[in-house]
Design goal:
- About 45% of the residues lie in helices and about 10% in strands.
- The strands form 2 sheets. Strands 5, 6, 7, 8, 9, 10, 11 and 12 form an 8-stranded mixed sheet that branches.
- A hairpin with a 6-residue loop joins strand 2 and strand 3.
- Helix 1 crosses helix 5.
- The radius of gyration is 24 Å and the shape is globular.
Length: about 475
C-alpha cells in the first residue's frame, strides 16, 4: 500500500522521559490543560475526543485516566456516548501492541514513518474492528474522516486501504495469524502485554495463573475508598455511597460505578480514593509487632502523593503518635501536605536516602519508587511506556532507601518495604539482599493481612488483582540488626 501522511515521529513524541515516585519530577505535563472542543462534519463527539486524548497521551505524556473524565465533563458527553468514548480510548491504549501488529501487517510503510495523528486514527479504527460491535463500514469511514480532520487529507486513501484490508479478516483470525511462538509470548500477545511483563509475572505465578493475571489487567477496576479512622467507619461510608465494605481492610469500601469525587464524605475529607491493598500496607506498618514499647515516632520515607501517610496519620492521631513524611519532589510534597491536612504529620522535602532525620523511629514505611507493574489496569497506556531496562536502576534505589530505613528505625522497631510491582527484582531480590548484606531479619507478614490468603509462599505478602481484587502490591516486614 502507499499513500501520503508519512513522516518520522518528532523527537518529543516518543515516551522516553519516565518518572517514578520518590524521584524528582515535574508536575504531569498537560494533565490540567483543558481540551479544545471541535466539531467536524460526519464525525461524532466520542471519536473526536478519543482521538484527541490519544494525541495528548503521546505528545504530553499525559495519563488518559486523568484527562478523559475531565474532558467528558467539559464536552458534556454523558451516558452511552461517554461509555463508548471511554471504551475506545482506554481500549485502544491498552491494546496498542496488538493493534500495531495488525496495522503493520497491512501497511507498506513502517509504523514510525506514519504521521502520529494518522497512526492514532488507525489504532482507534482497528480497535473498533477487533474488539467492539461497531459496524465495519462505520469504523472504516470514521477513521478516514479522523485522518482528514487531523490535517492529513492526502493520507485518506492510505487509511481507507488499511482499514478495508483489516475489516475483511475476522478478529480471531488476525490474532491467530500474528500470535508469536512460545507459551509466554503468545499469552502476552493475546492479552496485549509486552512479553517482558508477562515473563516477569510468570516468574512469580508460574504459567498456571499467568493468563488470568494478564486478563485482569484489562478489566475495569472497581473504585476503592478509604474511610478515615476516627472520622467515619467503613460501614457508614458504604451506606452513604451505596458501596460494599472491602474484603480485607477494615477501612475499605468498594464502588462498582460512579464518580467518587461526588461522594459527600470524599468532598468533606472524611474519606478518599485508595486501593484496598495500599490500605493494608499502611495498616501493617501500624500493626506490626515491636520489641519494646511504641514511643509514637513513625516515618513514611517515600510519602508522595500521600495516601499511605494520611492513613498512618489518622491512626497516629488515635494512638497519640506522630508521622514524619519524606518526599524528594517539592511538587509531590505539596500534594502530601494537602492530603494529610491537619493530621499529626510533618512533611519534609528531602531525599529518603539521606533525609537528615534523627534515628530512633519505631515504625518506618518504605513505599519505594517502582515500575508500577502492579497497577497496569488503572492506567491503560502504562504497559507500553514501561521498559525492562528501568528495573536495574530502580532496584538499586529501592535497596538504598531500604538501607536508609534500617538505619533510621530503632532496635526492635519495624520497617515495612513495599512496592506496587510484583517483579522479583523489585520485591524479593531487594529484601533478600537486605537480609544478606545488612543483617536485617524478615518477619512473617501474612497475619497482618488476614483474612486475605494465597499471598505467596514467602514470609512477605504478594497481592494480585485476579486473586484479591487489589493492585498487585508487595510488602515485607523487617527488623534491623542490633
Amino acid at each position: 500500500m502507499s499513500g501520503g501522511g508519512f513522516r518520522s515521529r518528532a523527537k518529543g513524541s516518543k515516551e522516553t522521559k519516565r518518572t517514578t515516585k520518590g524521584t524528582s519530577r515535574a508536575p504531569q505535563r498537560g494533565a490540567d490543560k483543558p481540551t479544545q472542543s471541535r466539531t467536524v462534519p460526519g464525525l461524532d463527539a466520542p471519536r473526536l475526543l478519543a482521538h484527541e486524548v490519544l494525541g495528548r497521551v503521546r505528545a504530553d505524556e499525559a495519563y488518559a485516566n486523568l484527562i478523559l473524565p475531565k474532558a467528558l465533563k467539559q464536552r458534556k458527553i454523558t451516558e452511552r456516548d461517554a461509555a463508548f468514548t471511554t471504551e475506545i480510548t482506554y481500549g485502544t491504549l491498552r491494546a496498542q501492541g496488538v493493534l500495531d501488529a495488525v496495522i503493520a501487517d497491512c501497511s507498506s510503510r513502517p509504523l514510525d514513518q506514519i504521521a502520529p495523528e494518522v497512526l492514532e486514527a488507525l489504532r482507534l479504527g482497528t480497535y473498533q474492528l477487533l474488539y467492539t460491535r461497531v459496524e465495519p463500514h462505520a469504523a472504516v469511514d470514521t477513521t478516514v474522516r479522523l485522518v482528514d480532520a487531523a490535517g492529513h487529507e492526502h493520507a485518506k486513501g492510505f487509511a481507507n486501504a488499511i482499514m478495508r484490508t483489516i475489516s475483511r479478516t475476522p478478529a480471531e483470525k488476525w490474532i491467530e495469524k500474528l500470535t508469536p511462538k512460545g507459551e509466554i509470548a503468545a499469552a502476552a500477545f493475546r492479552h496485549a502485554h509486552p512479553t517482558w511483563i508477562a515473563e516477569s509475572f510468570s516468574r512469580v505465578l508460574g504459567l498456571g495463573d499467568l493468563e488470568e493475571a494478564l486478563a485482569a489487567d484489562s478489566q475495569r477496576p472497581s473504585v476503592h475508598l478509604v474511610a478515615r479512622p476516627g472520622e467515619i467507619s467503613a460501614e457508614e461510608l458504604a451506606l452513604i455511597t451505596g458501596g460494599e465494605p472491602g474484603r480485607y481492610s477494615p477501612y475499605a469500601v468498594r464502588l462498582d460505578s460512579g464518580d467518587p469525587g461526588d461522594a459527600e464524605p470524599v468532598r468533606q475529607g472524611l474519606a478518599a480514593v485508595q486501593d484496598e491493598g495500599s490500605q493494608l500496607i499502611a495498616r501493617a506498618v501500624v500493626e506490626a509487632p515491636l520489641e519494646g514499647p511504641d514511643q509514637g515516632r513513625w516515618l513514611d520515607l517515600c510519602a508522595g502523593p500521600g495516601g499511605k501517610a494520611a492513613l498512618m496519620g489518622a491512626l497516629a492521631r488515635i494512638d497519640g503518635a506522630h508521622v514524619d513524611a519524606v518526599e524528594v519532589s517539592p511538587h509531590r510534597a505539596t500534594l502530601v501536605k494537602k492530603t494529610v491536612g491537619d493530621l499529626p504529620v510533618t512533611v519534609h522535602v528531602a531525599d529518603g536516602r539521606e533525609p537528615g532525620l534523627e534515628p530512633g523511629f519505631d515504625r518506618v514505611l518504605v513505599d519505594a519508587p517502582c515500575t508500577g507493574l502492579g497497577a497496569l489496569r488503572r492506567r491503560p497506556e502504562a504497559r507500553w511506556r514501561k521498559s525492562e531496562s528501568d528495573i536495574a536502576q530502580l532496584s538499586l534505589l529501592q535497596f538504598e532507601l531500604l538501607a536508609s530505613a534500617l538505619k533510621l528505625v530503632r532496635p526492635g522497631g519495624v520497617v515495612v518495604y513495599s512496592t506496587c510491582s510484583p517483579d522479583l527484582r523489585e520485591t524479593r531480590s531487594v529484601v533478600d539482599r537486605a537480609v544478606k548484606e545488612l543483617g536485617a531479619t524478615e518477619l512473617a507478614a501474612h497475619e497482618l493481612v488476614a483474612p486475605m490468603d494465597n499471598v505467596g509462599n514467602e514470609l512477605s505478602v504478594q497481592m494480585w488483582p485476579h486473586r484479591h481484587g487489589t493492585d498487585a502490591m508487595f510488602f515485607a516486614v523487617l527488623r534491623r540488626a542490633d
